[in-house]
UniProtKB/TrEMBL annotation:
UniProt-listed InterPro entries: Ald_DH/histidinol_DH, Ald_DH_C, Ald_DH_CS_CYS, Ald_DH_CS_GLU, Ald_DH_N, Aldehyde_DH_dom, BADH
GO biological process, one term: glycine betaine biosynthetic process from choline
GO molecular function: betaine-aldehyde dehydrogenase (NAD+) activity; metal ion binding
Protein name: Betaine-aldehyde dehydrogenase
NCBIfam families: BADH (TIGR01804), PRK13252.1 (NF009725)
Active site feature: 251
Organism lineage: Bacteria, Pseudomonadati, Pseudomonadota, Alphaproteobacteria, Rhodobacterales
UniProt KW keywords: Metal-binding, NAD, Oxidation, Oxidoreductase, Potassium
The keyword Nucleotide-binding appears for this protein: no
Residues annotated as transmembrane: none
Keyword Transit peptide applies: no
EC main group: oxidoreductase
């Protein structure tokens, strides 16, 4: 019997599902059991061509519609996503293995927020009037044209919407390639957008591995590339886009610091560290995986952390009582287990977890290492799994320098009850998305993105509009033209 997660076809192009079984088959594996639940096929060159040509053509009329008309469609899509939240959350759980307890509140809902927010903004995207004496300049915010979105596997619905919603609001079209690991959810986003009235060809989804992504990025018809992925992939995609002078948004990896001063509320700090390390089984780019704890509260913090981490419920992700799911793939599980072994070998003190869970699927226990030093591998490299490194510190000055000593710069957090210190420290941290007495909140109203190797550009908020549109300026002369001859 066909599994309910099996999509109607692999791709969604020009307003309809499209299949081409000549492409490489991509098995979809449910991470909680290891069983194959669906198959899609990588896009052939013919599918890539169909998606790009249809998106290029459809954009012309869409770009001419009023923002209010475009926004109405996006807001209708947001409503449909909310109505179908349960069904979409179940699918997200099959696609990623993340527990339903999370997907019910963090995926289709976050996608719907983006559609609603950018749908609301679409009608108010205006230029400026700049007086120049009798003359004047006016500016127009224009669409870029054809945008490509490439997604990572941790938030397939959210990423498809975070890229699609601002792109469409600004009058662009999109071809979106999900990660080959999680190909299912973006197809639903496309289906819903079209059900809400999006004209055919404006939001297309095609499947495939890196080669398909590379074919999209290098196509001369493409005006912008927005990638969510790792730093090495980001460097490749950025370089390929630069060769064609294309616009980019790069949302890449991190190794973010979470700094806990000894005057912090311990319960809240532990909660922040749990949210910043174990949500989505640690597969979150902005995670605060280097937890710097001031020596005065170190043992108290570790004791409560171990106690609360012990309450994680590992199990069937489709059961709402489960609070901690598997790694997305067997490969990712093995990468994470490799880092845990490195942590042990290099002398970090294991507080809890530290191994594969004794159950089917790709589960790794939520793991905490203490006495981690800055040079250890687990403190330097992005693990993308449930492995928290706790490091000690004495002074504010010292911890700021150590927190910044990394190529990454996505997020940073500070827990303290001294508000002037909180702002002073945050002001000196090299990170794009920061938190005070909280961690990992990502509302659509707030800009999201990194500095240094963690990325270029911002998603969400009004900032995203700047990255999906360009400004035309027009000088208007009222009098005669003076010329030298
Ligand atoms: P990857 O970098 O491996 O892949 C990201 C996407 O790029 C995938 O769809 C991949 O296809 C595609 N891709 C790979 N090579 C190329 C290429 N040469 N040209 C075009 N596209 C290509 O990341 P993961 O999927 O493994 O996701 C995990 C990473 O994403 C982590 O490092 C994490 O930090 C980062 N991330 C960043 C976020 C942010 O907003 N800053 C949010 C979430 C994750 P395929 O995999 O199918 O081969």
């Amino acid at each position: 019997m066909t599994h309910p997660a099996q999509p109607k076809a692999s791709h969604f192009i020009n307003g309809a599902y499209v299949e081409d079984t000549a492409g490489t088959p991509i098995p979809v594996i449910y991470a909680a059991t290891g069983e194959q639940i669906a198959t899609v096929y990588a896009a052939t060159p013919a599918i890539v061509e169909q998606a790009l040509s249809t998106a290029k053509e459809a954009q012309k009329a869409w770009g001419k519609m009023t923002g209010t008309e475009r926004g109405r469609i996006l807001r209708r899509a947001a409503d449909i996503m909310r109505e179908r939240n349960h069904e979409l959350s179940v699918l997200e759980t099959y696609d990623t293995g993340k527990p339903l307890q999370e997907t019910l509140v963090a995926d289709a809902t976050s996608g719907a927020d983006a559609l609603e927010y950018f749908g609301g903004l679409a009608g108010s995207l205006t230029g400026e009037h700049i007086p120049m004496g009798e003359d004047w300049v006016y500016t127009v915010r224009e669409a870029l044209g054809l945008c490509v979105g490439i997604g990572a596997w941790n938030y397939p619905t959210q990423i498809a919407c975070w890229k699609g919603a601002p792109a469409l609001a600004c009058g662009n079209s999109m071809v979106f390639k999900p990660s080959e690991t999680t190909p299912l959810c973006a197809l639903k986003v496309a289906e819903i957008l079209h059900e809400a009235g999006l004209p055919a060809g404006l939001y297309n989804v095609i499947q495939g591995m890196g080669e398909v992504g590379a074919a999209l990025v290098t196509d001369p018809r493409v005006d912008k590339v927005s990638l969510t992925g790792s730093v090495p992939t980001g460097k490749k995609v950025y370089a390929a886009a630069a060769a064609g002078m294309k616009h980019v948004t790069m949302e890449l990896g991190g190794k973010s610091p979470l700094i806990i001063f000894d005057d912090a509320d311990v319960e809240n700090a532990v909660g922040g560290a749990i949210n910043g390390n174990f949500y989505s089984s640690g597969q979150v780019c902005s995670n605060g995986t280097r937890v710097f704890v001031q020596k005065g509260i170190k043992e108290k913090f570790l004791a409560r952390l171990a106690e609360r981490t012990g309450a994680a419920v590992l199990g069937d992700p489709q059961d709402e009582a489960t609070s901690f799911g598997p790694m997305v793939t067997e490969n990712q599980m093995n990468i994470v287990l490799g880092y845990i072994e490195k942590g042990k070998e290099e002398g970090a003190r294991l507080i809890c977890g530290g191994k594969r869970a004794d159950m089917p699927g790709f589960f790794v226990e939520p793991t905490v290492f203490a006495d981690v030093t800055d040079d250890m591998t687990i403190a330097r490299e992005e693990i993308f799994g449930p492995v928290m490194s706790v490091l000690d510190f004495d002074t504010e000055e010292e911890v700021i320098a150590r927190a910044n000593d990394t190529e990454f710069g996505l997020s940073a957090g500070v827990f303290t009850n001294d508000f002037s210190r909180a702002h002073r420290v945050i002001g000196q941290l090299e990170a794009g998305s920061c938190f005070i007495n909280s961690y990992n909140d990502a509302p659509v109203e707030a800009p999201f993105g990194g500095v240094k190797a963690s990325g270029v550009g911002r998603e969400n908020s009004k900032e995203a509009i700047k990255h999906f549109s360009q400004v035309k300026s027009v000088y208007v002369r009222m009098g005669d033209v003076e010329a030298a001859f």
